[in-house]
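Q: My collaborator sent me two sequences in one message, no labels, and asked for predicted structures for both. Can we handle them in order? The first one she listed is below.
A: Yes, handling them in the order given. First sequence, followed by its C-alpha cells:
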Amino acid sequence: MITEDQLEQLCLNWFQSIGYSYVNGYDIAPDGNSPERSDYRQIILHNRLLSALETINPHVPVATLEQVAQQVAKPETPILIKNNNAFHQWLLEGVKVEYKEKGEAKVDYVRLIDLDNSASNEFLVVNQYTVSGVKGFRRPDVIVFINGLPLAVLELKNPADSKADIWSAYQQLQTYKEEIPDLFIFNEALVVSDGLNARVGSLTANKERFLPWRVVDDENDKPLLEYFLETLVKGFFKPELFLDYIRHFVLFEEDDGETIKKIAGYHQFHAVRAAVKATVIAAQRSTPDEVAEPRANYANEVVPGSGKAGVVWHTQGSGKSISMVCYAGKLLAQPAMNNPTIVVVTDRNDLDGQLFDTFSMAASTLKQTPVQASDRDELREILASRQSGGIIFTTIQKFALLGDESAHPLLSRRHNIVVVSDEAHRSQYGDRAKFNAKTGKYTFGYSKHLRDALPEASFIGFTGTPIDSADKDTRAVFGGYVSIYDIQDAVDDGA
C-alpha cells in the first residue's frame, strides 16, 4: 500500500502526462527559491495571469490588462458563493473594460481563459501551496491553475489509513472553505481521494453530491486502472475536456434565496457531448446520394441530414434535467447550428413547468431566458415568426389539430430547429394512423402533427426508462440510443 506522499507524487505525474506543467509550492512561495507571490495571502499567480492575458487579448493595452488582473484578485462581496458565481461569469464572458485607443474610447471584454483553444492557456499543477488564513497557514495538497487562476483543489488522504478516507478529505475541504475562503472564489471543482476512491463535487455540494468520475475520453472509455484518482485526473482535467466542462457544465441555481452550484457528473458530461455531436450530424443538409440510399440507423450511427439525433436513456434520478440544460447551452454555441431554436416538448403540464423552471434558473448559462407557449395559437405564432435562436417550452398536446383541420399547418421549414423530447417513448409520440370506427376517419399521433409543423427539424429524446424493443415509433422519430446510463451504472457509482 502506498503512502499519502507517494499518492501525491503519482497524482502530479498523472497531471504532467496530460500536458500540465508542475512547480512545487515551496519554490514559488514568497520566501522560496523562485518567488511568484508577494505574501501568503496572495492567491493568484499574478505574473502568470498577466502573461496569459497578453497572449489571449493582444489588442488590449497592458495597463488595462494589469487593472483586470488586480480586479479579479479582489473579492467583491463577503459571500463566497456570490464571488464564485461572479468569477464564473467572467470566465465565460470576459471582464468588461474601457480604454482609449488613438484618443477614441473603446469598450471590450478581456478573456481570462481561451475556451476555444486549450493551447493558448497555461495549465499548471502545484502541490504544498501555503495560504494564510484566519487561523494561521493552510496547505491544500494539490491545486490546479489555469493562467495563474486556482480553478480546482484536490485533497488526498493516506490509502493505508482506514480512518482517513475520502470523507475526512471532504471535511478538510469544508475547513479550508471557512479558513481560506479567498482560495475558493475561483473554484470550479473540488476533488477528494484516498487513491483507490476519488470523487468530484462543486463548491456547495454535500457528501451525496460528490460523485465518481469513471471514464476518460467518452462514456465507454472505462480503463481498468489501479487507482480511480488516475481515471479522474486524466478524464476530468484533460485540458480540452476541462475547458468544455467549465464552459457548459456548471450551473448556478437559486433555492429559497440560497445559491446552489451544480456540476455535471461524468455520465451527463459525455452524454451531452455525444448528443450535441449527433444533433449537428442529424441537422446537416442531406446530399442527393444520402437521400437516394439512406443508411440503416443502428444504435449509435446517426444518418447525416436524417433529423434523428437519437435517444439519451439515463435511469431515473440521474439528473436528466441538468443534462437537458447543458445540452441546450452547448448546442446553442455550435457554429454549425447557426443559432438554432430549441423546442422542449413534454407530455404533461406539471413536467413542462418543472423543466421550464430549471431552464429559467440557468438563464445566465444559456445566455437567454426560455419562453413558455400558453396555448396552441401562441405556440404556432412563436414558431412561425421566429427566424433563429430561442428556447420554447410546450406540451405535445399543443400540436393537436384545431377545428376541422385535416393536417397540422406548416409552421417553419428552418433546418436549425431542434425538438427536445422529455420522456421520448410515451405512446402519444406515435406516427401510425389509427382508424376511428365512429367517425370513419384515420387519426394520427401528435408526433405526425409535430413533423408536419416542423418538417426540417431534428429530434432528440431524453428518457429515464428504456425503450421497449418493440417500440418502433420512438426509433422512427428519434433514431437509436446516443447514450445509456442504466440502473447498474447508477448502482456502481453509488448513486
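Q: And the one she listed second?
A: Here it is, processed independently of the first:
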Amino acid sequence: MTRKLEWIVVAAALSCSAGPAAAWVNHTLGAWPALAAMPEINAAPAIRVETLDAFLAAEARGLEQLLQREEAWAKANVPLYPPRPDALAFTPGGTPAELRQRFVAALRINPGMKLNLFVQARPGDSVSGKATLPWTEVTTRRRASAAQESVFLRLREGDRVALLDVVATATDEPDYGMDIGLWDDNGTPYGKAYGFGKQPFGNPALEFASQAPFHMGFFHETAMVYKAAGFLRRTYPEYRIHLWQSLAAYALQTAHPYWGWRFAGWALHYIEDLTQPYHASVLPGVGVPRLLWINTLDLLGLHEPKKQAITLVSNRHLSLENYQYHRMRNAYARHDAGDALVNAVKDTSADAGRVYFADDAAREVISRESNALAGATDRVLEQSLQRKYVSDPAYVLGETEPELDLYDVLNKSPPSAREAMTGMVAGLLRNFGAHSRAFVRSLLARSQQGR
C-alpha cells in the first residue's frame, strides 16, 4: 500500500507545479503596497543602478568568503541539503564574463538568466517616452503569460531609480526561470553539474515543474504522508532565502544598494511563496482518511478517484492564483488604491510579533501558519466559485478556458461568494505583507550592524 500511496501524494503535490502555477502570480503587485507601507523604503532616496559585472569586480574577494560561509550554514541548518560541489566554489579573477559565470555557478541558478537591468511598470501607468525591455530579455521561460502581460522599463548603469521599485520588481524574478533545470535529470548540462541530485517530485521533463522544490515547503505534513512520500522533505526555500539574504546584507554593507535590494527581492519571493497554503500543504482539502480510501480503490484497480482528486487540488490551487492576479492587476489599472486586496497587503496591523525574521522563520512560522490555513482556504474556494472550476474533474483550469478571469466571473456571483473570497484572499495577503516587512526590517538592522 505504501508504494501506491506514494504515487497519489506525489501526483497531488505536483499537479500544480507541472503547469504555469506559482504561489502568487506577479509578486510585484503585492510587494509594491506591502513595502510602500514602510517609510524607510517608500521615502528612501533613489539608488544608483549598477551592473552585476561591476558589483562582482569590486567585491569578488569578499564574496568568495561569504559564499564559503553560506555553504557551511546550509550544510549545518538545511535538512537533506545537497552540498555544492567543490568545483563550483566561487573564486576571484579572470574576465568579467568568467567572473559572472563562476558566480552564477556558485549560486547554482539557471545560467540562462540574463540578469539585465530593469524595473516593472505599474499596470495602468503611462510608459510613453520610456525605454522598455522585451519580456524575452527578462525570463528564460518559453511560456510566461504574466511576464508577457507586464511592461519592463530598461535601466542603464548610473541611472537613479526608486528603491521601492527595485526590490518590488525583484520579488517576481525567481519565477522567471531562476530555479528551472537545476536537477541532474532535467536534461541540462548545468543540472548535471550542480549536485542537487534527481528532482524529488514532479515530471523532470516539464520546464516549470523543476522549480517547485525550491518554491514549496512541505514542512508540516503528517507522519503517514512522510512515510509514504519521504521525498516531500526535499524542499529548499530556506536555502534560497538565507543565501539571498546574506548577499543582500553584504551588498548593502559594502555600498552596493542596487544589488543589495535586488537580492533582497529574490529572498522575499520565497518567503511570499510560503504564505500561499498550496505551497505549504501537499493535499489541502484531502484528509488522510480520504487519501487512504482513494488509495484502497486504486489498489483495487479503480484509478478514477485518484485522477479526480489530483485534478481538483490543481484546479483550486490555480483558481486562487487566477483570482488574485486578475483582481490586483485590475485594481492597478483602475488606480484603485482602496481595493480590499491592496489594502490587505499594506495593512500593518498584522505586523505585531513579526518584527524580526529569524533563520527558521520560513519553516517554523510562515509555512506552519499557511499549512494551518490550507483546509479553510480550500473550503472557501469550493464554496465561493462555480462548481466547474473547483469541483468538476473534467474541467482543467488554465486549459479548458485559457483566457479565464475568475475575478470577472466572481463579480457576477452572489455577494456572499464575493465576500467570502475577498476575506480569504485578503487574509493570506495580509500575511504576505507582514512577513515581507519583517524580513526587510531584519535586513536593515543586519546591514546597519555590519557597517
